[in-house]
């Protein structure tokens, strides 16, 4: 993981400079604004997205061959992110200027004012004209997702090897699944849809997905959840841009960003209790243990899909942080479902 971080740190000046040169000589294609999150707790709106060179992506299908999926993956990762692009944000009566970072990502926390009955329903985004950018003239309009009350439960779930079979601990298998499958042909773990629908009261309670995959997979993950009838919710991914040269890194590297994103959710919804779901293949148990320490009494329960041999010390350390029967290490989703029915409150 250190090697990956060092590689990205060393190559960042090259990647950043290449994008700036393409921009300077007018070689950037038409740009696209991709909006990932427009999330509100009623007092603030959190916005996140990125600016990339536009590309055409075909819709996923069960009938697509491995070759067709590989070509789609090439299209997904061949686009360039655009650093230092300026955007105009319209939200209610407010107009704000944003700028993308070195990875083409923008984000903004926007306080809301005025009556709840007059709160804005949408945001609008447009690129500020730049002589070296081919900027689209149409404004991007997105609905604001309001989560403005405290629910009996909310979920924070990992994605890879928690709901979707990813083989994250096997580089070769992971890479093949990443490039040769699409949202309709990636496999979920059996029973995930039933389990998550039960935990969320058939989708009434919110669920947040946090992963070390990068934002280039946002549409694949969203389409996968919808196709497999797994409750939809905000998706929080890794900001670092992955391209054709480092596609194998998606989902790998340092996982501290997952801790930061879970902290963000805990702080953004300070009265909400969460149930955490992950797997033992990477660092979810340690990350979740840290969250329990930092936010006492805010975690209802933890479910960890166990891979490989039992690590008694690791399991005892996490189990000691919550009351009995609130941490479950399971092999299958069916085990997790049976445990939840017995030990969680569904009244």
Automatic annotation (TrEMBL):
Transmembrane segments: none annotated. This is DUF2183 domain-containing protein. Residues 154-306 form the Phosphatidate phosphatase APP1 catalytic domain. InterPro entries: APP1_cat, HAD-like_sf, Mg2+_PAP. It comes from the Bacteria. PANTHER family: PHOSPHATIDATE PHOSPHATASE APP1 (PTHR28208:SF3). It holds the Pfam family APP1_cat.
């Amino acid at each position: 993981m250190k090697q990956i971080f060092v590689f990205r740190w060393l190559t960042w000046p090259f990647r950043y400079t290449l994008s700036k040169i393409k921009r300077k000589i007018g070689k950037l294609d038409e740009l696209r604004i991709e909006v990932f999150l427009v999330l509100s707790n009623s007092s603030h709106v959190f916005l996140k997205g990125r600016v990339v060179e536009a590309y055409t992506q075909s819709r996923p299908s069960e009938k697509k061959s491995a070759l067709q999926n590989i070509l789609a993956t090439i299209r997904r990762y061949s686009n360039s992110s655009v650093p230092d692009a300026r955007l105009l944000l319209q939200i209610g009566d407010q107009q704000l200027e944003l700028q993308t970072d070195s990875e083409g990502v923008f984000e903004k926390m926007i306080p809301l004012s005025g009556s709840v009955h007059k709160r804005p329903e949408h945001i609008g985004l447009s690129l500020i004209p730049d002589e070296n950018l081919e900027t689209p003239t149409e404004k991007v309009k997105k609905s604001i997702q309001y989560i403005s009350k405290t629910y009996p439960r909310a979920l924070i779930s990992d994605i890879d090897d928690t709901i979707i079979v990813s083989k994250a601990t096997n580089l070769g298998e992971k890479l093949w699944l990443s490039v040769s499958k699409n949202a309709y042909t990636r496999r979920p773990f059996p029973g995930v849809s039933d389990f998550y629908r039960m935990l969320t009261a058939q989708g009434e309670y919110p669920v947040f997905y946090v992963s070390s995959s990068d934002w280039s997979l946002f549409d694949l993950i969203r389409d996968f959840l919808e196709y497999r009838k797994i409750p939809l919710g905000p998706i929080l991914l890794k900001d670092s841009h992955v391209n054709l040269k480092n596609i194998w890194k998606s989902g790998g590297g340092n996982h501290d960003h997952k801790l930061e994103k879970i902290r963000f959710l805990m702080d953004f919804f300070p009265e909400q209790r969460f149930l955490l779901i992950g797997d033992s293949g990477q660092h979810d148990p340690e990350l979740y243990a840290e969250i329990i320490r930092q936010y006492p009494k805010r975690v209802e329960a933890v479910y960890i899909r166990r891979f490989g041999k039992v690590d008694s010390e690791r399991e005892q350390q996490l189990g000691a942080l919550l009351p009995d029967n609130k941490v479950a290490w399971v092999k299958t989703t069916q085990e997790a479902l049976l445990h939840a029915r017995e030990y969680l409150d569904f009244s």
